[in-house]
Amino acid sequence: MNEHNYLFIDFEFTMPENKRKPSGFYPEIIEVGLVAVVDSEIADTFSSFIKPEKFSILTERCKKFLNIKQEDIEEGIPFSQFVDTLRGYEQGESSTVITWGNMDMKVLKNNCEVAGVLYPFKGKHRDLSLEYKHFFGDRNQTGLRKAIEAYGKKGTGKHHRALDDALTTYSIFQLVEKDKEYLVKPAPTTIGELVDLSKLLKKARAQ
Predict the structure, then answer these.
(1) Is 12 tagged catalytic?
(2) Buried-state track 119-145, b at ≥16 Cβ within 10 A, e below 16
(3) For residue range 145-199, what is the model confidence (pLDDT) as tens digits?
(4) Is 93 a catalytic residue?
(5) What pTM does this model have?
(6) Catalytic residue among 4, 125, 159, 160
(7) Catalytic residue selected from 4, 12, 17, 90
(8) Over the stretch 75-96, which tens digit does the pLDDT of each residue have?
């Protein structure tokens, strides 16, 4: 991970009360967690609530599922300020945004289009859940917390809190990258591979 800027990001969104969505409803980002990693070290973290613009009142389902209060988002930052903050963390094409799943970036792009603001990222985006699935040969994509538990470890903080989930995503990234390096590195050569022992034994017997 040397000489590269990685941004591990997690968003939480608004959600309708039930499957019957209100007219014009779309998920809006209401919480962000970001972990900036430079040269394999955490350089900074950012966490904030964001005020939704279209459906400003959270549903009971959303509040219960995310353990979030209406007052939390009312004290959050405006969407435009949130996007400017994201843009400030990127370092052009030398940056890679990493999320668990592809929904975060899809919702961000949609929210930017609706708000009429420029999408903040120019660098690459990697869906770590998809990489995890391919790496381990799973048929289905694994949830964030189950993925870290599969390594015998626990996720950071609380599930569905944006910064905690971003930190957990970074932890899984480190573990997967370490496994990839292990597979790429050839196994150390044994003494048996360096020397043909059968020939040595024949030679010894002949003497």
Answers:
(1) yes
(2) ebbebeeebbbebbbeeeeeeeebebb
(3) 999 999 998 888 889 899 999 999 999 999 999 888 877 655 555 555 545 555 5
(4) no
(5) 0.85
(6) 160
(7) 12
(8) 999 999 999 999 999 977 779 9
